[in-house]
Structures are given as C-alpha cells and as structure tokens.
Amino acid sequence: MRRLSWLVVGVALGFVGAHFVNQTPSGRRFFDQVNRGAREFSDALASGYRVAEEEFSEALDDVERRLAKLEAKK
User: Fold this and answer.
1) Cα dihedral 64/65/68/72 (nearest 10)
2) pLDDT-derived band of residue 72, with 50, 70 and 90 as boundaries?
3) In this structure, are residues 39 and 30 in contact, taking their beta carbons and an 8 Å threshold?
4) Long-range CB contacts (< 8 A, 24+ apart) of 34-43?
5) How far apart are CA 3 and CA 22, in angstroms?
6) In which band, very low, low, confident or very high, does the pLDDT at 73 lie, cut at 50, 70 and 90?
7) What contacts 30, CB < 8 A, 6 or more positions away?
8) With b meaning 16 or more CB within 10 Å and e meaning fewer, what string describes 30-51?
9) For the ranges 12-16, 63-67, 68-72, which has the lowest average pLDDT?
10) End-to-end alpha-carbon separation of the chain, Å?
11) Tens digit of pLDDT for each residue in 18-66?
12) Domain span including residue 45
C-alpha cells in the first residue's frame, strides 16, 4: 500500500510539474514535439497492424483456396 501511495504522489507531482512547464513557450514547444512523436509512433503502429492484417488475410485466403481444391479432388 505504501508503494501505491508513493506512485500516486509521484504521478500527481508529475502532472503539476507538466502543467507549469506547459505554461512557458519552450515548454509548449517541448510538449508539441512529444505529442508529434507519439502521434507518429501511433500512426506507424496502426499502419504496421494493417499491413500484418492484410498479409494474414491473404495467407488465410490461400489456405482456403488450397483446401477447396483438395475437397474438389475427393
């Protein structure tokens, strides 16, 4: 329980500190840069997921076609 309370205190102090830093022009630029990096990472992750999903779908379609051919031969 003690560790949890320290975690909560640390998070609260982090938010307060970030609020004060964000009030300065350089702080705003810093957080804009962090947000831009997070957005780029998120977009890259989503793009990779879509590519992997498409490849999986193509592989699954190939397996289904091959199974259909085997069924037709019987």
Assistant:
1) -170
2) confident
3) no
4) none
5) 28
6) confident
7) 21
8) eeeeeeeeeeeeeeeeeeeeee
9) 68-72
10) 66
11) 999 999 999 999 999 999 999 999 999 999 999 999 999 999 999 999 9
12) 1-72
3-state secondary structure at position 49: helix
Q: Is 59 exposed, middle or buried (0-12, 13-18, 19+ CB in 10 A)?
A: exposed
Number of domains in the chain: 1
Residue 74 has pLDDT above 80, yes or no: no
Residue 27, Cβ density class (10 Å: 0-12 exposed, 13-18 middle, ≥19 buried): middle
Residue type, 44: A
Q: Note whether 53 and 59 are within 8 A (CB).
A: no
**Tokens read off for 74:** 């019987």
